[in-house]
């Protein structure tokens, strides 16, 4: 199930990238490249709105899938084969912590007058 979410997120990211690349940052976008039939086909304003709405929808879907996908990661006995659980193989010891001994301060020199 996690692999399904991962593949779905990757596919949506590619589609989002394509939708963003189709847009023109100066306002022309897809409608300017149609070749003179922009107003007759869909209209300049409508094409820009559709691409912007598509950008927001794909970005929201990617965010939603990223938030929901951890709910499908198995836990419990099936999750015990996790790589992070195998990292610390040394047994833990509870040795008392000792502070280093600090030598007493040297006596101040006496100044005879």
Features:
mainly alpha, about 110 residues, 5 helices, elongated
How would you explain this protein's 3D organization?
The protein is mostly helical. The chain contains five helices and no strands. It has helices at residues 2-22, 29-32, 38-41, 44-68, 83-86. The radius of gyration is 32 Å and the shape is elongated. The termini are far apart. Residues 36-41 have low confidence and may be disordered.
Unreliable stretches covering 5 or more consecutive residues? 36-41
Approximate strand percentage: under 5%
For the CA atoms, what is the radius of gyration? 32 Å
What is the arithmetic mean of pLDDT?
Answer: 74
Q: What is the count of helical runs?
A: 5
Termini Cα gap: 89 Å
Task: Work out the number of β strands.
Answer: 0
Please trace the helix and strand order, writing H or E for each element.
Answer: HHHHH
Explain the layout of strands and helices.
Elements: H1 2-22, H2 29-32, H3 38-41, H4 44-68, H5 83-86
Helix pairs in contact: 1-4
What does this entry show, briefly?
The protein has helices at 2-22, 29-32, 38-41, 44-68, 83-86.
